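Postdoc handover notes: sequence design on the structure in folder B. Input C-alpha cells:
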C-alpha cells in the first residue's frame, strides 16, 4: 500500500517519482478525480519534468475509464491549465511540482471554472478512493469509456491575458526574463509577441532537471543571474518565474528585488481603477501598504489566511476584483479567481511603460515599510515555542494578538507573524516595521524565544 499521507498535501499531490508515487497511482488518481467531480469531461496539462508526460497520460486513462472525455493540452504553465479549465468549463489537472527538485512531481486539481480542490473541497475524498482502490484493485472500466484527444490552448491563453491589460501604447521596454528552465520558457514568448518589448531570454530551454538553478525565485540565490543581466544590459526590468510559471518575481532597473507586497499594491490600484469600490484580498503577511493603497484607491481590503484555497474562497464569497500574497501569487476575478503571475507581470509592464520614470521610482509609493522577509527556524516543539512567544507579548501594553493564521502580534509601529510549517518542523517568522532598526529589534526578541 502506498503511503498517501506522505504525498497528499493540503492543496495538491506532491512527492518523489517513482519512490512515493508512479504512473499506476496516477491512473487511480485520474479515476478518483473523475468520480469525485462527477465529470463527463476533463482537461489535463503538464510541465517539463521528465516524469510529467507519462504521469499525465496515466491520469487521463484513469479518468477515461470512469467515462470522462479527456482533453490533453500538453506542455503548459499552471495558469494556462486554469485558463483551459475556465474557458472550456471543465475540471482540470496540472502535473507539476512547481519549484521542487527534479525528482518530484505532483498534481494540482480544480473543478470547472478553475475552482480549487483542496482537503476540504474534494481532495480528501479523492485520496480515500485511491487508497481503497490501491488496496482492493481498481474498479472495472465503465461500459461507455471516455475519449482522449488533444488541444493546443497556448495562443488562446495569451490572447486572453492580453485582452485584460492594454500594452499597445506603452513606451518600448527592455525586459530580461529568467524562466529557470521552467514553463515560462514556453509561455512568455507567445504572451509578449507583438508587444513593444525587447525580450532578453535567460534559461528558456525546457529542462525539468533544472541545470542552471532551482526554479524558485523566492530564494535570493536563484535570481542572482537575473539581477546581473539586468545591470549588465541596462534593462528596464527583470522578471523571474517559478517552475510551473504561476508565480512571477520582479527586479527593478538596478537589479533590486521588488517585494511581492509592492506588486500586490500596484496591481490592486490598477484593478480598482477598472472597478471602483471593489474588494481586494490580501493574506495576513502582506505589507501594511497593501491595505493602505486599497483604501486610498476607494477599495475594501479583506485580510485572510495564507494559501490559495483561502484566497480563492474569499474572492468567490466577496466578488473581489484581485488578491495577492507575499509569496508572489496573484489572483484575478477576470481570470476565474485563479492565480496567474503572467497577468501580474503584464500589469507591471503596463504601469512602467505608461510613464517615463524607472521602476525603482514607480514602486516607491507601494513599498513604504521595512521588513524582515521570511525567517525560518527549525524547532522540535512548534506549539511550545509559539506558546512561549504568545506569553511574552500577551500582556504588553499597546499590543494586540490574533490567531487567524499562526500568531500575529501588532503594535502601532510594527507587527510580526509566526506560523508553523505544514510540512516541516519549522516556525516561519515575518516582521514589518516603520524602520529597519525596529525590525531588527523585534527579530532578535522573537528569535531568542523561538530558538531558546
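Designed sequence:
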Amino acid at each position: 500500500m502506498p503511503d498517501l499521507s506522505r504525498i497528499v498535501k493540503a492543496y495538491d499531490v506532491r512527492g518523489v517519482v517513482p519512490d512515493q508515487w508512479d504512473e499506476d497511482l496516477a491512473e487511480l488518481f485520474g479515476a478518483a478525480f473523475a468520480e469525485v467531480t462527477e465529470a463527463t469531461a476533463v482537461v489535463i496539462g503538464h510541465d517539463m519534468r521528465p516524469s510529467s508526460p507519462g504521469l499525465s497520460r496515466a491520469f487521463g486513462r484513469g479518468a477515461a475509464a470512469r467515462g470522462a472525455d479527456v482533453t490533453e493540452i500538453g506542455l503548459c504553465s499552471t495558469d494556462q491549465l486554469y485558463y483551459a479549465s475556465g474557458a472550456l468549463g471543465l475540471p482540470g489537472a496540472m502535473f507539476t511540482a512547481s519549484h521542487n527538485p527534479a525528482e518530484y512531481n505532483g498534481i494540482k486539481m480544480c473543478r470547472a471554472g478553475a475552482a480549487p480542490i483542496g482537503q476540504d473541497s474534494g481532495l480528501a475524498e479523492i485520496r480515500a478512493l485511491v487508497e481503497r482502490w490501491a488496496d482492493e484493485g481498481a474498479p472495472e472500466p465503465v461500459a461507455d469509456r471516455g475519449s482522449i484527444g488533444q488541444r493546443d490552448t497556448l495562443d488562446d491563453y495569451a490572447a486572453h491575458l492580453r485582452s485584460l491589460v492594454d500594452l499597445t501604447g506603452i513606451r518600448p521596454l527592455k525586459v530580461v526574463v529568467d524562466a529557470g528552465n521552467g514553463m515560462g520558457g514556453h509561455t512568455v514568448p507567445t504572451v509578449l509577441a507583438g508587444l513593444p518589448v525587447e525580450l532578453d531570454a535567460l534559461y528558456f530551454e525546457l529542462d525539468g532537471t533544472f541545470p542552471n538553478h532551482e526554479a524558485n525565485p523566492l530564494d535570493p540565490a536563484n535570481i542572482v543571474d537575473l539581477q546581473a543581466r539586468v545591470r549588465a544590459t541596462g534593462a528596464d526590468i527583470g522578471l523571474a518565474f517559478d517552475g510551473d510559471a504561476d508565480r512571477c518575481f520582479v527586479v527593478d532597473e538596478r537589479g533590486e528585488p521588488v517585494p511581492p507586497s509592492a506588486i500586490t499594491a500596484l496591481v490592486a490600484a490598477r484593478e480598482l481603477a477598472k472597478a471602483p469600490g471593489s474588494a481586494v484580498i490580501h493574506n495576513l503577511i502582506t505589507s501594511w501598504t497593501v491595505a493602505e493603497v486599497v483604501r486610498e484607491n476607494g477599495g475594501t481590503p479583506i485580510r485572510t489566511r495564507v494559501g490559495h484555497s483561502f484566497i480563492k474562497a474569499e474572492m468567490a464569497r466577496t466578488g473581489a476584483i484581485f488578491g495577492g500574497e507575499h509569496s508572489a501569487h496573484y489572483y484575478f476575478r477576470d481570470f476565474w479567481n485563479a492565480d496567474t503571475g503572467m497577468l501580474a507581470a503584464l500589469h507591471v509592464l503596463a504601469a512602467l511603460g505608461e510613464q517615463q520614470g524607472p521602476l525603482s521610482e514607480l514602486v516607491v509609493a507601494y513599498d513604504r515599510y521595512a521588513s524582515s522577509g521570511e525567517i525560518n527556524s527549525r524547532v522540535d516543539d512548534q506549539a511550545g515555542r509559539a506558546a512561549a512567544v504568545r506569553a511574552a507579548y500577551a500582556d504588553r501594553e499597546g499590543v494586540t494578538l490574533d490567531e487567524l493564521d499562526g500568531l500575529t502580534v501588532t503594535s502601532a509601529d510594527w507587527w510580526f507573524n509566526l506560523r508553523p510549517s505544514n510540512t516541516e518542523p519549522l516556525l516561519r517568522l515575518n516582521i514589518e516595521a516603520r524602520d529597519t532598526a525596529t525590525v531588527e529589534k523585534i527579530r532578535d526578541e522573537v528569535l531568542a524565544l523561538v530558538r531558546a
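Context for whoever picks this up: The chain has four domains: 4-152, 156-254, 260-366, 370-450. Don't rerun without checking with the PI first.
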